[in-house]
From TrEMBL:
Residues 36-74 are annotated as: Disordered. InterPro entries: PGBD. Residues 97-244 form the PiggyBac transposable element-derived protein domain. This is PiggyBac transposable element-derived protein domain-containing protein.
Amino acid sequence: MAANQKLYNPEDPKDAELLRSMLDDDDEMDYQDELLKSDNDFEIEEGETGTNEIEIREESSDTEQSAESSSDENELDFFIGRDKIAGVKGTAREANSPIETWSCFITDDMLNLIVAWTNQMIESVSHKFQRERDAKLTDIVEMRAFLALLYLAGVLQSNRLSLEELWSVDGHGVEFFRLVMSIKRFKFLMRCLRFDDQTTRQQRKARDNLSPIRELFTMFVENFKSNYCLGQNVTIDEKLETFRELYAGRQPEKDYSISNKPSDVVKRLVTPIYNTGRNITADNWFTDVDLVSHLKEKKLSYQKE
């Protein structure tokens, strides 16, 4: 059975003086010996174990302690994101080479999806070829090689060169292209490359104009979320992109119709970081009183740029 404990009240002058003397002394053990010899200041009762226990009461009441604890908990709701460090996470932390890093964002599942729908297209046109090898099905290895050539063409800034010039053997071409695959095979894969089920595309396109790449694009975005951690401060801003397409005018509402109000755009973008205590910075175009109130409810702060 534990020994009775003596509690000190800092508001009591006698206890306050005693506590002050204990704090001023460098050698705590010496003062414990002196306290044991003093019978007038406090009482010590020994338990069955024969040990003496001393407890110093720092709060004047349980109510005060409870109020401070509640206040701290409320403040922590808005500072959860202060320890967020921007950088890679998940499988990306284990990537040690460019190809391993690339595979974190373009996964084998995505490549297998491309291979499956590309092969579907190849099978649908194979009857047009006299030789079976001219319409051979592709696989994930060849698909990686095909994508590598597209990357290489971009690195070499050869967007103004024709395929014949890249595969040329007169000394002006790039030997690497010829070593990977023939120009005939490259053109065939480029023509048959697909990212969705062509048998259901028209049905899906009636509801979603992005249906040809919707599944692949969604997987791509999710890979970024799972492999990169945003920092404490997040910035949202608009950016103009060059785009050439026919203007379709106003269209009927569809399943994928969304609001393009600036405040609604912000809400959609920050949904993955709700309740993390991060700070959102944006300019006047996005700033709105209702938006700030909404973000506060989601434990996010907002700062106008």
